Amino acid sequence: MPSKIRQLLDQGPIAMLASALFFALMGAMVKSLGQDIPLFQVTFFRAMVSALLLGCVMWRRGIPLKGKNQKLLLIRALSGFTAMALNFYALARMGLGDASVLNQSSPVFVLLFSWIFLGERFYRSLLFLTLVSFLGIVLILRPTGHVFNMAGLAGVGGAVFAAAAYVAIRQLHQTDSFWTMAFYFMALAALLSFPLMLLTWKTPNLTQLSLLLGSGVFGTLGQLLMTLAYKNEEASWVAPFSYAGALFSFCLGMYFFQETPDLHTLAGAGLTIGGGILLMVLRRRIQPPLARELPVPDGEVLEGLS
């Protein structure tokens, strides 16, 4: 990797913006496949490519594949697999920007799950911001609009299960590395998707195969860059930059899919994203977390791919 690019990516906000762009491009690839390629076939290729890439890096660097907290690794992997499948279902059936905003509403549910399952204190000052974010979700899923359907509910469900995965990651941070968590997640997702894929298999053409493989590559790069961002900067500083992914998704949706967000969607996106950012900032000011929401990997992230 050229030194100038590496120096640029060592800046947390830049790495997070690059991560958001790669995730948005991955979402656009999944949406391009639409309903022509079955859901679990898309899920399998996304997970399989990532598992192979991560496994090769771990083998090259001598990182053991076996994790320490097997039970929690399984919970994290199952939650992540469910979140990914629901998100892909939503991406294929609703606007790219809408699906991205719903997927990025997970910090609201992280706050609630941390309060319920981790025994963390729920401050009253955060309640208003939580309600603001939920109002934004309701605007996007407006009952009188065309988005309030199974796709919209799947998008919210994906955010809920993603939040459960993030809460598990916060606990796993104490025992296992990023590489182990990511590999377990992708390997299990590939294994679970495989038999379901065989039941609904559709032979892809060359373009579809490129999109299937590309979604795995771009998703992996997005994950690595996000971890690099958290490694080099404080989470409270870089985390808000991840919401740029919603902006990238809206732009990609308008350019490639001729999607034009209406005022309800824009207002809902503003409330959801704004509430989520303020939740993260205010929560850390009130009570700094014991561990970063995403774990720091072993050694340098990008050197494993060079």
Question: Which spans have pLDDT < 50 for at least 5 consecutive residues?
Answer: 288-306
* Pattern of helices and strands: HHHHHHHHHHHHH
> How many helices?
13
**Rg to the nearest angstrom?**
18 Å
Characterize the structure shown:
It is a single chain. The chain is mainly alpha-helical and 306 residues long. The protein has one domain. Helix content is 74%, strand content 0%. The chain has 13 helices and no strands. The protein has helices at 3-9, 12-33, 39-61, 70-93, 96-103, 106-117, 124-140, 150-172, 178-199, 206-232, 235-238, 244-257, 263-286. Helix 2 (12-33) crosses helix 4 and helix 7 runs antiparallel to helix 13 (263-286). The longest helix is centred in the C-terminal third of the chain and has 27 residues, at 206-232. It is globular. The N and C termini lie close together (6 Å).
What features would you highlight for this structure?
mainly alpha; single chain; 306 residues
